[in-house]
Design a protein that fits this description.
This protein is mainly alpha-helical and 285 residues long. The chain folds into two domains: 86 residues, no CATH class; 138 residues, no CATH class. 59% of the residues lie in helices and 5% in strands. A three-stranded antiparallel beta sheet has the order 1-2-3, with helices on one face.
């Protein structure tokens, strides 16, 4: 009846064999209760008496906590990670059913630490994968634009074609920034979809920063001498994607210079007083 597994308890009780339980991984079995993982690696347990466990005042807390932990592992976890996490949780369930609340809490604490570590790893993987794919798509677009420049540039125009190349430089710079900060802790409670969206947004910010920098240079607003050397300008655009301070500083400079270029208008604090025309009374004849 019992599944062949090196982690199984060596204790087996015949009265559980008659229950036809879907046991994949046996955690603990005794006369009063049994704790196991089913074929889907979900935590399950049975007691010989439905009222068993009600004598322990701390059991509802253990039950609530293990249920929350069982659902806290992020999507994308490997089957081995799920099994390891659920085994740790199931150990806490077994200790709780045994009315050993202190050991049950310790087992659940171990499970929580393990799950948090796996969730951080999954978040980092999702973040890097999304940033990498976004960068690859942009760079492939740039490569096609360069290889087919004899046909595409007359249609798109040199200015737009170079902007695509500068955008790729910004994407590469932003991806380098992501790699340099790969050890930065991410919120393990956020779903992988949220981290993927944030990573793609980071690459797009780098692209926008590169394009803004290229426009400022080519328009003569910022270091116009760089416009004569496209390769050097491409490096500046990559730095714009890498730096988190260059684009905000450039934006402030544009706002300051734009405000200074506005014509000054004469203003008066006092409203103009209307002039009242007075008629000279006619002379007496």
């Amino acid at each position: 009846m019992w599944a062949k597994d090196k982690h199984q308890s060596k204790t087996s009780y015949k009265h559980w064999d008659d229950k036809n339980l879907p046991i994949k991984d046996l955690i603990y079995a005794c006369e009063e209760y049994i704790v196991f993982l089913d074929y889907d690696l979900a935590i399950d347990w049975k007691t010989i008496d439905e009222t068993y466990g009600n004598f322990s005042t701390g059991w509802p807390k253990i039950q609530s906590r293990y249920t929350a932990l069982e659902d806290s592992l992020c999507d994308g976890a490997s089957r081995s990670s799920i099994r390891r996490a659920h085994r740790l949780i199931a150990e806490g369930v077994a200790r709780g059913l045994d009315r050993n609340l202190k050991e049950a809490e310790a087992s659940l604490d171990n499970a929580e630490r393990y799950i948090s570590a796996r969730n951080r790893e999954l978040s980092q993987i999702a973040y890097l994968n999304s940033a990498g794919w976004m960068t690859v798509i942009i760079c492939l677009t740039c490569l096609v634009c360069w290889l087919e420049r004899s046909r595409l540039w007359p249609v798109l125009g040199p200015a737009l074609s170079w902007m695509i190349i500068y955008a790729a430089g910004g994407a590469l710079g932003a991806f380098l920034s992501v790699l340099l900060k790969r050890g930065q802790p991410l919120d393990p409670n956020t779903e992988s979809k949220g981290h993927s969206t944030e990573a793609r947004a980071r690459i797009l910010v780098g692209v926008c920063g590169a394009v803004l920098t290229a426009l400022a240079v080519r328009s003569g607003f910022l270091y116009p001498q760089l416009a004569a050397t496209p390769a050097l300008l491409l490096g500046v655009c990559a730095f714009a994607g890498l730096s988190e301070r260059l684009v905000p500083d450039l934006t402030r400079r544009i706002e300051t210079k734009g405000a200074a270029a506005l014509p000054e208008t004469a203003t008066s604090n006092d409203p103009a007083k209307p002039t009242i025309a007075t008629e000279t009374p006619p002379g007496r004849g």
